[in-house]
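Quick one, tokens below:
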């Protein structure tokens, strides 16, 4: 039995690095960027995005309503689980690593050793809620 195609997935195509369109994302600190690779993250259904975080930038404790699978594309992805930013809880994941993050898990990131790029695969809609509203760039 054939299923209906998801938005943007009804034709064979490939996405090359030079096709990635990095954009600011209101929920991220200003230097961080997001690129939609496949799908429509704001709608129900599967999506793939990439996130680029420059050296030194932190994403303070937050959670997502959707389950996520992160694949580290480049750099070292430091992620910690918990409701407070705690450098001691950060785990370093090198390029090629896959990190599974269940929905609702409070966590934080830090581009501790340089810029990193992760690819996120999930089923939308995408959501991001900071545990402390003062950490949310949308409230600035």
């Amino acid at each position: 039995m054939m299923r209906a195609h998801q938005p943007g997935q009804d034709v064979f195509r490939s996405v090359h690095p030079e096709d990635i369109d990095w954009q600011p994302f209101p929920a991220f600190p200003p230097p961080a960027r997001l690129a939609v690779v496949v799908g429509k993250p704001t709608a129900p259904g599967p999506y793939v995005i990439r996130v680029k975080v420059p050296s030194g930038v932190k994403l303070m404790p937050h959670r997502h309503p959707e389950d996520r699978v992160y694949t580290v594309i480049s750099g070292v992805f430091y992620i910690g689980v918990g409701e407070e930013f705690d450098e001691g809880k950060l785990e370093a994941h090198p390029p090629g690593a896959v990190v599974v993050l269940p929905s609702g898990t409070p966590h934080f990131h830090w581009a501790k050793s340089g810029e990193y790029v992760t690819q996120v695969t999930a089923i939308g809609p995408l959501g991001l809620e900071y545990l402390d509203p003062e950490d949310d760039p949308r409230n600035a």
